[in-house]
Specification:
Blueprint (H helix, E strand, L loop, with lengths): L2 H13 L7 H14 L23 E6 L2 E3 L2 H7 L9 E8 L7 H16 L8 H15 L10 E7 L8 H13 L1
Parallel strand pairs: 3-4
Antiparallel strand pairs: 1-2, 1-3
């Protein structure tokens, strides 16, 4: 890991009381915080968006409605009770890798996990954060007429500490992922 990134990670871990976690867990939370903070208008608990050992290729997932991070099905139902018909809904998926390279296998696992989340009616994985986010996602889908443009937007971030040099196989997989979604 680059020394500057490592220094930011260490400062972040101290600030959030994460020094007891191993570096890979700290990095996942660091990336989730960095990606999500600009998208939400309030503070949030990292545990609400960071997956655990039972995840299937997603390190962070968040459902954001009108710049508010939804953390429960009840939150989602509450926000859609109003007559408002122009909610901005964004689903954010994050995969964080400490390596300096972009691994095609890791990317494909992330891609398939996101596609499963989006497409599956009977979604269930071994991670509570993902299952909870999917329940919130289902509430959003039931309220599609109240979403701006009739669809939620989607952001998928595959983050490493390296410099992306657009390798052909990874670019092909990325473009297919964008097309499929």
């Amino acid at each position: 890991m680059h020394r500057i990134i490592k220094s930011h990670l260490e400062n972040f871990s101290k600030s959030f009381g994460l020094a007891d976690l191993d570096e890979s867990e700290q990095f996942e939370m660091f990336v989730n915080y960095a990606v999500l903070t600009p998208k939400v208008s309030t503070t949030f608990e990292l545990g609400d968006v960071t997956t655990g050992e039972g995840d299937d290729g997603i390190d962070g997932v968040a459902i954001i409605v009108d710049e508010e991070l939804l953390v429960s099905e009840e939150d989602a139902k509450s926000i859609f009770k109003s007559d408002r018909k122009n909610h901005d809904v964004e689903i954010v998926f994050i995969q964080a890798k400490r390596s300096d390279s972009f691994d095609l296998g890791d990317f494909l696992k992330f891609k398939e996990s996101v596609k499963k989340f989006i497409d599956a009616d009977d979604y269930e994985v071994g991670d509570d954060v993902q299952n909870n986010a999917h329940a919130i996602y289902n509430v959003c889908l039931k309220n599609v007429p109240k979403l701006r443009g009739g669809n939620p937007s989607l952001t998928a971030r595959f983050v490493t500490t390296g410099v992306y040099s657009e390798p052909e196989a990874l670019e092909t997989a990325r473009k297919k992922f964008e097309h499929d979604l």
